[in-house]
Structure formats: structure tokens, C-alpha cells
Amino acid sequence: MSATPYAPSENWYRQLTDLYQDHINSLEHDPTPLINYLLKNIRSTRLGIYFEVLWCYWFETNQQYQLLHKNLQVFKNKQTIGEYDFIVLNNTTQKTEHWEVAVKFYLKKQINDNTYYWFGPNKTDRWDIKTKKLINTQIELSSKPLAQEQLRSLDIKIDTKKIILKGRLFHPFIQNKRINFEILRINDKISIKHENASWYFLSDFLQKEIFSDYQWCHLNKLNWLSTSSHLNNYSLIAHNTIEIESNPICLAGLINDVEVVRLFIVPDDW
Hints:
Blueprint: H1 10-29, H2 32-41, H3 47-61, E1 65-76, E2 79-90, E3 95-112, E4 115-119, H4 127-138, H5 145-153, E5 160-172, H6 181-188, E6 196-201, H7 202-207, E7 215-219, E8 237-238, E9 249-255, E10 258-266
Parallel strand pairs: 3-5, 5-6, 6-10
Antiparallel strand pairs: 1-2, 2-3, 3-4, 7-8, 7-9, 9-10
């Protein structure tokens, strides 16, 4: 999703996927090992924690990277001044890497004619603030003197750094308006190949007649990363019965049990 500094290339992700494809295929046949791992290790409904646990499973079942430390904290006078998400060893290069990982879902909101922001669904965070913190603070933790002292005590030298920022961006639905991906790359440091979809005000969604042909599935947070084909025992609801209270909701639209659209619905005063 991110085109920020320290973001791995598309080719890097592709190589990791290719090397891991046999295990992915085995999980498609029998997901029990992953399900058991998640049940054992997830202690929170926060999407970011879930994302980290998925990475931990990958570290334990791949051959290219070895997890050395997870959530290693750096202290000053008993106060935490920072935390590494992952410190890993690349088994191929024998280089030690610091990874910061995050998964985010942002909705583009126009503030005025010249200003827009990417907000989280509950407007508690923004893309520009998060990426600034990742680049200027979190990924630079190893440059702090106290952090360097701790790394030396652990006999660790950080050779390279990566920011793994995944998720999906939701553009406001505007009839017949195309997304200018190049402007997003330049202005917002967003990959032109990012996963994208649309969001609608509730009233606009209910008035869109084509959506009455779909069946809808209300996705809880931990399913925002999943396709509907990987969901079990979900309830389908009709277009004209969808309601929301104060918080936006994420929906998957299905035709003949096949997902054809993913979107967010927000209150009309969002």
C-alpha cells in the first residue's frame, strides 16, 4: 500500500509469496495449523495485533527469515521510549533487519476544495500522521543511543530496515470520476498498485439500485483482511435493511455467494 521510504518493492513481496506458495496451498487444503496458531496466540480483537500474529506464523513456517525479537522495548528511566515490531535474520544474506509492520484501512475525506485527508473509519487516525510516525520515529529507533546500547548488549547490528504497511484505501464514490493514482503516489506516497475500493454515505448507498441485486455480509474487523470465500457461517442481509448507528461498517457484496464488491458505509454526517 505504501510507497514510503523503506517500503519493500513489489518484486520482494512476489518472491516471498512464490517461496511460500506450497505452504499456502497446504493451508487452502487444511487451514487447521493456522487456525490453531491464531487461537493460541491472539489475545486481542485489534486488527494490528492480528496482523502481527499472522506475520509470526509466517516467520515460524518459512525458511527465508528467522524471528529474533518481537516487540522488543527500549527503556529510559523505566519509561518506554520505543519498541521494535520485529528484528529478524535474513537466512539468505545473513543480514539482520528491523521491520515495522502495520495494517490500515483509510477513507479519503475532502475537507475543502484544496484539502483532503485519509481517515481511519472512526477518524481516530490519519494516513499522513501514521506514515510520518513510521518514517521519522518508529523505523529510526535503532539510531537512538539507548537503543544502540541495548542492541550491542544483545550482540545485534541492524543492517537494513523495512516498513511493511498493508491494508486498503477507500475512495469516496463519485459517479464517473476516475482515480488519479499518479497524484496519490506523488502527494501521499501511496503505491499505485494499492488495494482500493469505495465508501458511501448511507443514504447514497440505499439509493443505488444496482446494490439491491446483491446480498450483503457485514464484516467484523478481523475479517477485513479476508475474502468472503474464507468466511464461515456469516449471515447475509438485504440491501434495503442495512442500518448503521455512529460508526462506519465494512460490507462485502455477493452475487451467487461470490464476492463482487467490498466497501464502507458511513453515517450521513460522517
